[in-house]
Amino acid sequence: QHCFVCGKSGATILCCKMGCDRHFHFPCAKEGGCITQFLPPYSSFCSQHRLEQTVEAAPEENTTCLICLDLVEDRKCYGTMVCPACKHAWFHRGCIQAQALQAGYSCFQCPLCRDRDLFIPEMLLMGIRIPFR
After folding, report:
1. Residues 99, 56: one domain?
2. DSSP string for residues in 36-103
3. 4 and 65 both lie in a single domain
4. Cα torsion 95, 99, 87, 123: sign
5. Count of Cβ atoms closer than 10 Å to residue 22 Cβ
6. CB of 11 closer than 8 Å to CB of 26
7. What is the DSSP letter of 14?
8. One domain for residues 58 and 104
9. What is the value of pTM for the model shown?
10. Ranges for the PHD-type domain (predicted)?
11. pLDDT tens digits, residue range 35-69?
12. Domain coverage including residue 63
């Protein structure tokens, strides 16, 4: 199978949306805007069918990422995420992924409100890998 991101053969991940035949390599997922969930049933979605956060929130003007302090986009998107609990903590996907890898499951929480009950399941569904260390 050919990867829809890089065009090379050997793509083994298939979008789990019924009727979608897009394949991609795991390393190409981030570049292609794909989401791979790291909890059972380990579903993967192409950029066209990926899940979006259901939280009804929009960042205020000049909102910065709580981790890197750079401006975030003016809406939720693949690269910009929000905490589902407090709805005020905005961050870049790459920043929260780096925090998750550093903290591990036992210490990972919202950087603002410190919620874990809503935050961790939402991050797992949105493709953030949280290692058990």
Report:
1. yes
2. E-SSTT--EE-TTT---------PPTT-B-TTT-PBPPSS--SSEEE-TTTS--EEEHHHHHHHHHHH
3. no
4. positive
5. 22
6. no
7. E
8. yes
9. 0.88
10. 1-50
11. 999 888 999 999 999 999 988 888 888 999 999 99
12. 52-132
Based on the domain organization, do 42 and 92 belong to the same domain? no
The tens digit of pLDDT for each residue in 80-99 reads: 999 999 999 999 999 999 99
HSE at residue 69, side-chain half, CA atoms within 13 A, is 0
3-state DSSP assignment of residue 13: strand
Q: Which tokens is 11 given? A: 């793509």
Total domains, the chain: 2
CA distance 75 to 90: 10
Which residue type sits at 5?
Answer: V
